[in-house]
Amino acid sequence: MAALGYNPSTVYMLTFTVGAALSGLAGGVMAPLTGLLPSVGGAYIAKAFITVITGGAAVIAGTLSTATLFGTVDQIVSFASTPVLGEIAMLALALVLLRLMPQGVTGQFFRNST
Amino acid sequence: MSDPVVETQDLAVRFGGVLAVDHVNFGLRERELRCLIGPNGAGKSTFFKSITGQVRGAHSSGRVFIRGQDTTGWSTHQIVRLGIGIKTQVPSVMNGLTVAENLWLSARRTAGSEGADAAVDEVLSELELGGVARRLVGELAHGQRQLVEIGTVLANKPWLVLLDEPAAGLTNAETERLVAIIKRINQTATLIVVDHDMHFVRTLDSWITVFHQGGILVEGRADKVLTDPSVREVYLGNRA
Amino acid sequence: MTASGFGIGRIRWNWLAALGVLLAVLPLAYETSTPTLLAIWALFALSLALMWGYAGIISFGHAAYFGLGAYTYAIASFNIGESTVPFLLALAVPALVAAVIGAMMFYGRISDVYLGVTTLVVTLILNRFMNATAGDAYRIGNARLGGFNGIPAFPTLNVPGDPTTEVYGTAYYYVVVVCLIAAYLICRWILASSFGRALIGIRENELRMELLGYNVPAYKTAIFAVAGAMAGLAGCLFANWAEIVTPSVFSLGQTAEVLIWVIVGGLGTLVGPMIAAVVLGSLKLALGHQTTIDNSLILGAILILVVLLIPRGFAPSSVAWRRRFAQSQVRRRQARGKRRRRVALQEAEP
Prior knowledge:
The complex is a heterotrimer of chains A (114), B (240) and C (350). With 114 residues, chain A is mostly helical. Chain A contains five helices and no strands. Chain A has helices spanning 8-34, 42-55, 59-80, 83-100, 105-108. In chain A, helix 3 (59-80) runs antiparallel to helix 4 (83-100). With 240 residues, chain B is α/β, with parallel strands linked by helices. Chain B has two domains: 1-83 and 158-240, P-loop containing nucleotide triphosphate hydrolases (Rossmann fold, 3-Layer(aba) Sandwich); 94-156, no CATH class. Chain B is 37% helix and 26% strand. Chain B has eight helices and ten strands. In chain B, helix 3 (99-126) packs across helix 4. Chain B is globular. By secondary structure, chain C is mostly helical. Chain C has two domains: 13-312, ABC transporter involved in vitamin B12 uptake, BtuC (Orthogonal Bundle), CATH 1.10.3470; 317-350. Chain C is 72% helix and 2% strand. Chain C has a two-stranded antiparallel ribbon. In chain C, a hairpin with a 2-residue loop joins strand 1 and strand 2 (143-144). The radius of gyration of chain C is 23 Å and the shape is globular. In chain C, 46% of the residues are buried.
């Protein structure tokens, strides 16, 4: 990209800023639902990271598919048993997906989507 | 063909909707030097990768035999252990290590830790890389890096050597040197060379297999193939 | 190929001896509880430094094996009573689990960030599971897993064969230090062997190593298991130090800390991360005592500063500084030599 005339550092900075802004938006939407503590962000770091990476290269299609999948599995298993088992089921599913699709979900399916 | 050392039977490779290799039957004799040529997208590199185990599984059908052994579906390191040296299209060396260390890792597998140093010295002198033996490969010029990669291929004394575009990015002088090296290797080993550089291919003066649209168009001695009108047509626009 | 090839320096035996002496006399001048903990953390850092720095395997969940070592020891010693077998199990179980998970990852060709996520998920599963094991129903043999509160009051280390003589205090400090030095020497031995050289080659270019006939997934699984065993040893020693194991040993915080130690200390060296573990660990403990500034704030700030200013960590930078210093000395000597020769020539002329 640098050879094409773009400044990679600026692109990274802008991307990071937009990402941070989106996270802030998500937090703002959630605040009335869950209440606030300074540590409230921490619980979501791991899950968000796992969701995004398992989604694969396609930003929207990938994250959307894994987020939906994980959220659904988590809630269904939580409802059927305990919230802890729900979380563990979600994590175990992530492991299985990563093993079967080493490039993420959109590395395997929906390859040319955004 | 009497007892081919490399043979493919009805080999086909499909990526999505494209048939990259179209039911190819290929045979190579012991101690032969064979060049695979053809325009971009003809399927040479995919065919090459089918033999080296880099392309296999759901994408491919048909069989590959090396010295009579059915190696279809084998993983790359298993195939290599039959005594094969492979140089890839994109140069593949350990940039963060020195030339000698690169060669040592290759030699050690067949010569053991004790014999590896001697094998490394042998390759260094044969390829005239002695002067840069302690330099990091990442710091070398492209031509020298290509040579180092060929060195790692030779250091474990393979009987079959597969080179994918060894002349890419080399100067004319370096290409001449490469031809001499290949001729020397051919005295004891069988070779398959894939390349685009027509001057290089012509200087090698060997049997040529021409690929076109996934299949073999024509096969024969260099002088015959390179003057064949169908080959000329396939390369239309190329100054051969 | 001499031991100083492949970017690994020779062992400085005199430095090691000096350090050994220093560690041996430390208890005379100082209390041993904190140094023991710091040595345990250094061992933990060493395990990741070996795997990440030399084999190129990144793990966002290395605390999993630390925790497995701790819990295995606690559960086993509860059930067995004597500590030798539990100690060995605390090495074997993490190694075995690491081998299984490693095989699953490496034979499945998972790499880079996907590897990081997989390792993270494993740690999270362990953490969540252990947190929820409160109540009598969750027990292995005699040991109740205790959920959030963990397992307290298990038999700690005793002299092998003699369950009544416990090893604690200064004696335990020496045990930990010996383990640390032994682990370091084992790491050096691995790196000097053909196995270690192959790992370095794999870190540099996996494809080329595969093309040279090396079974890359097998090598990676092996080193992953070794690093798991070492982390498990650290965990077991930690369990004996703390005399309680809680799910926090599997926490994200623990795994983040060891990553920070390796980054700040210098990825690609063994000594750097160990020193970073000791320095940052001491800092964290010292800061923990006061309440003016939150200690995570300071540690976070340190990480940011290091990443911005000294991206390769301290150890490689210090090697580079030393080389530059040595080169400037050489240049100065050459200049002096030239001047002397010029003067000699002038004097020689009539």
